[in-house]
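Final report, Chapter 2: Outcomes

The project's central promise was a pipeline that accepts a single protein chain and returns its three-dimensional structure in a standardized token representation, suitable for archiving and comparison. That pipeline is now operational. To close this chapter, we reproduce one record exactly as it appears in the project archive, with the input sequence first and the structure output second.
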Amino acid sequence: MSDKTIWDKLQNVDRRVFYWILFVGLAVPFMFPLGLPVAVTPPTQGLYSGLRKLQAGDVVALSINSGVSAWGDCLPAMVASVTQVLRQDAKLVIWSVGYVDCDITYREIVNRVPEFKSKTYGVDWVYFGYCPGQESNVALLRDNIRGLYTKDIQGTPTGDIPMMKNINGAKDIAMVLTSDTGDVQVYYRNQWGPTKSSRDNFGAVKYPVAEIGIAMNLSGDMSFFLSGDLFGLTGGSRGGAEMEKLVGIKGDGTITMDSINVSHLLVIGAIILTNVSYLLTRGKKR
């Protein structure tokens, strides 16, 4: 009969057992999102608070400037933000000046946001697709949407789309949400009237701009949030999880953070157990 205690055995467990425990632990959030606690940071709270101020009929421009490769970072916050926009009974004008694969992202957003089912295309939202041109196009959209987009993605002339009858430029739009893997939010801040803009001298209005960015952008763009040039800012899947928490949904951001938290808890637990077992057995004769 073996005289080994459980602490002795723990020190000799095959490492593959831990790998299997980790595998199962990481799989659970993907099947059953846990919604483990996530602290909401001020930039994400700023985005949510700004969306909560929208009135019925207000128009929000969503500029999809992140590709499919950035879904992990940007898509959760975009889905959560669009969900809140539609809950406020606001309208959406969607386009892209940054990525040619924006159609795929647009369709994914529509598929993931149940609120679209109670809305009518052309009345509550419209999608214009991709148009190359970067900052020059952002300037054109500010002054004359029809000058850039003569028709929507379905081929309907812009003037024939019901919700576009009174929308022709930045003055008709309440705010801009831009998903971003680069500097597109800078284009909107430059051209649509940031807090301090030379364009204020000849009649530009100060339009609220928020960025839904990749994690890498967060530290660099934080200064724009702190200065008030951005009213909201999210970074990566963590920002997406924060927005999902505020909006009350459990999407990919929540799943990602759950997986990270579970893996960290398992590693911490393993470290504690191995140290305890070592301390309890280190003086034992073998």
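Archive annotation: The two ends are 15 Å apart (CA to CA).
This record, like all others produced under the grant, will remain available to the consortium after the project formally closes.
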